[in-house]
Write a structure and sequence with these properties.
eight-stranded mixed β-sheet; flat; about 950 residues; Methane Monooxygenase Hydroxylase, Chain G, domain 1; about 45% helix; Four Helix Bundle (Hemerythrin (Met), subunit A); 31 strands; alpha+beta; Alpha-Beta Plaits; seven-stranded mixed β-sheet
Length: about 950
């Protein structure tokens, strides 16, 4: 804030507390006007932000502006809504206490826009991830939806909020937004059926008619012209020059799916049904009974709401009374039927809006409060009464919390407090809400009274109960001058913001009390919005209108509260950091206690005792002129400081440059000296030292030589013996390998060669391979006596190299048949007892297929053009890894082994094909499957 004091003559002061004539309302408004003329719409009153609606877009809300205010102390730079947002956020994180931001002002002052700027700031600047970014997007997209359904054009504001909303934004321990919740208060449901001249219904109706496509309007049985609908013509304002309903419709339709709405929820059906309800007309019979003359509308409403048409017709034209368990149905007269229709329209829209807010809550702790502004209309109904009651309660809260926080700060800092006289509006709040004697209690009592009730009886009851109250006036109780401007059906309340006549609610009172409890539990920040003119024109400043708002918002009282004690306060470290150049003892750094440093500084500046006080952690300055004098002295001192900083910086750069030069020269000298020394002839001492290094390394190496080819350790050599050490390591390894190979027996060598081949084929490919590693491969799985002598004679000179029992499966029916598989050096034979059933030449073998599971199935693929073969051979063996390895090595077909993960295809005679399917199960099973395939269930390996 101090940085802008030098421009105060042109743009005014950024904080009203610094006004010299702080008791002058004219000086206050002149400061507002001067800043407004320079497009400086934000000004502080201490920690309270005053915002003047510019009625135009300003280039002060960019991402660069957000970064400028992010993490910066509240008073360091110019006032802004982002400063309040960031200060609240940082207070929440550092103090771990819930915060709330109260935004108040009359209708059209810019409260809703302020709340949107705050939400945008949090969505952009808070830490986030993909999930939180989506949440922030939904939070922002909820605004246009709520505005469409809850905002409308009034005489004072083209986008006036016709409901109050309190929005909770919830953060995790890192300060990232993780959710939100919206509480809505008092939707102005009467606007659905009636609007004053020059006003409109809720935006969504016009957006639907102007922006909805033809198919949607045909589905809802609607026409584009809003003049055709009874609920949209009352205000005689179907179009707005400043608003594009078609473009806003696109924004709403884009936002709905983002925040979780689906077409199945038929939200627009309800909106269309309300328009049809407004066009429902009634006729009156000879005996006074009412009937519906527009059956088409009833059918449309029933279709859109999904209700029975006859039941709807009955509800609009008859009333039902229940007494002692008996029901009585009687017809409504014409006026009652119209009232019932309008009441239904209001109820349908009101419940839809409540459901809409609850739906948004499902997808979403600061608090952000945006409610109606104070309203004084030509005809002020129950809605305006509740709106102004809510503003009274918030004004009372503002005064209480402002005074309390001010007092607490002075008490904490040990500073004496001077009492300030201010208007306490508690007397008006009690007039409205006091139990048994307040207006709301009297209204509830009158509504519950048996018999016919009317405005006249209600006014009489108010006069009897509240007749002597200074803030309550009726036609009967008023003086002659006041009677001339009041009708007999009105009563007047003297609010803090002005006098309001009402044409003659506990539920709203209770919800408002709940809101007050929520706000009282949080640390508050305030934004007070001001409307510069009623015409909504940029650049126009209506001094009379602004003065009225300054008065009823209590801004002068708030300023006097801040100035009653001291105009300026800062923590010791901030004050000393800014003004330390003005005192030689504190410049450039103060190393003692902060309080002593501040005292030294103010004594050097010549502060008088009555101009300041030192608290426990802050300095308080009473008069703005004291601060201005100090700031002017700092401005005068800045050229000297700049010269001092420049000379210091240049000296530091020169010293660094000289130091780098010295280091470079030293490095070059050492490199040259080293180069010369390394290329000189060795002296006897050098030769002796190198001999000693070699001898020591070799002696150590002899003691630590690896004892096995698996031991990869090796002593670290000195730099001069790195190359020799590597040669020795390779020679030693080669020597150990030769010795090991000489000790290996031929049988063991053959075993290892087979194991290596098995590893190449099956490692990480077949489930049963790990269990086979530790088992030796045998020369044969059949004893010599198990091979029939006749078969041996038939083989002749081809000796059996390996034999194993297998199961062969028929190619067609998959019938299992026990066989022996005998391997020779050039072929394999399948033997059935004494007879050779099939000979398989290795040269003709096209491949071997095995599954990846733990089963023992394998297929030998034969050439299809060989007429001697009947197709591929399907076999099963318990030693499949051993058998396939030996077969692949004997046939030289190692690269022809195929391991299939799911199924194996095999050839049947005459070009047909069969399939084996492999699955995991609890036990091994081989059977014919449902699709005609051979199904092999393999046990799971654990």
């Amino acid at each position: 804030m101090e940085s802008a004091l030098t421009a105060r003559d042109r743009v005014g002061v950024q904080d009203f507390v610094l006004l010299e004539n702080y008791n002058s309302e004219a000086a206050f408004i002149e400061n507002l006007r001067r800043r407004f003329g320079e497009n400086l719409i934000y000004t502080y009153i201490g920690s309270v932000l005053v915002s003047v609606n510019p009625y135009k877009e300003l280039e002060i809300y960019s991402k660069q502006q957000m970064d400028r205010y992010r993490g910066v102390s509240f008073y360091e730079i110019s006032p802004h809504i982002y400063a309040v947002s960031d200060n609240t956020y940082r207070a929440m994180r550092t103090e771990r206490k819930d915060q709330c931001i109260l935004i108040s002002g009359e209708s059209g002052a810019g409260k809703t826009e302020a709340s949107k700027k705050i939400l945008l700031y949090y969505a952009v600047t808070c830490p986030t991830n993909d999930h939180m970014a989506a949440l922030g997007d939904r939070l922002l997209q909820s605004n246009p939806v709520l505005e469409a359904f809850g905002n409308a054009k009034t005489l004072r504001n083209d986008n006036s909020s016709r409901f109050g909303k309190y929005m909770d934004v919830q953060f995790d321990f890192r300060g990232a937004p993780v959710g939100g919740h919206i509480l809505n208060y008092l939707l102005e449901k009467s606007r659905v059926v009636h609007q004053n001249h020059g006003e409109r219904n809720f935006h969504i109706f016009y957006q639907l008619l102007d922006g909805g496509d033809d198919n949607l309007l045909n589905t809802l049985d609607l026409e584009r012209n809003p003049q055709n609908y009874h609920y949209l013509v009352k205000g005689n304002c179907p179009r707005l020059s400043s608003v594009s309903d078609k473009n806003n419709w696109k924004v709403v339709m884009k936002a709905l799916p983002i925040i979780g709405f689906t077409e199945e929820e038929k939200l627009l059906n309800i909106i269309g049904s309300v328009l049809h309800l407004g066009n429902t007309q009634f006729g009156e019979g000879e005996e006074g009974e009412t009937y519906i003359t527009t059956e088409t509308q009833i059918n449309n409403i029933a279709k859109l709401l999904g209700v029975d048409g006859s039941a709807l017709r009955e509800a609009l034209t008859h009333k039902k009374l229940t007494a002692k368990g008996e029901e009585m149905i009687s017809p409504l007269n014409f006026e009652q039927a119209v009232s019932a229709r309008d009441a239904l329209a209001k109820a349908v829209y009101g419940r839809t809006f409540t459901w809409l807010v609850e739906k948004i809550n499902h997808i979403m702790l600061w608090g952000l409060l945006d409610i109606y502004g104070f309203e004084v209309l030509q005809h002020n109904s129950f809605e305006q009464f509740c709106i102004n009651y809510c503003n009274e309660k918030l004004q009372q809260l503002f005064i209480e919390l402002t005074l309390r926080s001010e007092q607490e700060e002075y008490e904490t800092e040990g500073i004496a407090w001077e009492t300030v006289q201010y208007f306490d509006n508690k007397i008006i709040c009690d007039l409205i809400e006091e139990k048994h004697k307040g207006i709301i209690s009297i209204l509830d009592e009158e509504c519950l009274r048996p018999g016919e009730t009317c405005d006249v009886s209600f006014l009489e009851k108010l006069e009897d109960t509240l007749g002597g109250h200074p803030h309550f006036v009726t036609h009967k109780l008023a003086n002659g001058k006041t009677r001339r401007v009041m009708s007999r059906e009105e009563f007047r309340l003297l609010h803090y913001a002005g006098e309001v006549n009402y044409n003659a609610a506990t539920q709203f009172k209770n919800s408002l009390m709940k809101l007050m409890e929520i706000l009282m539990s949080k640390e508050p920040s305030y934004v007070r919005c001001i409307k510069p003119n009623d015409a909504k024109q940029p650049g126009r400043f209506d001094e009379v209108l602004v003065r009225h708002q300054v008065k009823y918002l209590g801004l002068m009282e708030n300023l006097r509260v801040r100035r009653a004690g001291f105009a300026y306060r800062r923590r010791f470290e901030a004050f000393l950091q800014r003004y330390k150049p003005l005192c030689p003892e504190t410049w450039p750094n103060w190393h003692g206690r902060l309080a002593d440093g501040v005292l030294t500084l103010v004594n050097h500046l010549g502060y008088k005792a009555e101009e300041y006080k030192l608290g426990r952690s802050k300095i308080f300055i009473r008069f703005p002129k004291t601060l201005f004098t100090t700031e002017d002295a700092l401005e005068a001192k800045k050229p000297d400081i700049v010269i001092m900083i420049q000379s210091g910086w240049r000296g530091m750069k020169a010293r660094r440059r000289a130091k780098r030069r010295r280091q470079a020269a030293d490095l070059i000298r050492r490199f040259i000296k080293g180069f010369i020394y390394r290329h000189e002839e060795y002296c006897p001492e050098n030769e002796y030292f190198l001999d000693h290094v070699r001898y020591s390394f070799l002696k150590n190496l002899r003691k630590n030589l690896p004892k096995s080819v698996l031991d990869k350790s090796w002593p670290t050599p000195p730099p001069s013996l790195v190359e020799a050490s590597e040669h020795l390591r390779r020679l030693h390894m080669r020597n150990m390998v030769i010795k090991y190979c000489r000790r290996v027996q031929p049988e063991w060598k053959k075993q290892m060669m087979q194991k290596v081949e098995a590893s190449e084929i099956f490692k990480d490919q077949k489930d049963s391979y790990p269990q086979s590693v530790g088992r030796l491969f045998l020369d044969s799985r059949l004893e010599r006596e198990q091979i029939n002598l006749k078969v041996v004679q038939t083989l002749g000179n081809d000796k059996v190299q390996y034999g194993v029992a297998v199961i062969k499966y028929d190619r067609r029916g998959f019938k299992p048949r026990p066989r022996q598989l005998l391997l020779t050096n050039t072929f394999a034979v399948l033997v059935d007892r004494t007879k050779i059933k099939q000979r398989i030449d290795y040269a003709a073998l096209r491949g071997i297929s095995v599954s990846s599971l733990s089963d023992g199935m394998f297929v030998l693929h034969m050439p299809s053009e060989d007429n001697k073969q009947k197709g591929d051979v399907v076999l099963q063996c318990t030693h499949v890894i051993e058998l396939v390895t030996k077969l692949a090595m004997m046939a030289n077909k190692v690269n022809y082994v195929n391991i299939s993960p799911g199924s194996i295809r095999f050839a049947v005679a005459r070009g047909k094909e069969g399939i084996i399917d492999f699955v995991r199960g609890s036990e091994l099973k081989v059977a014919k499957g449902k699709r005609g395939h051979l199904l092999v269930v393999s046990q799971r390996q654990f």
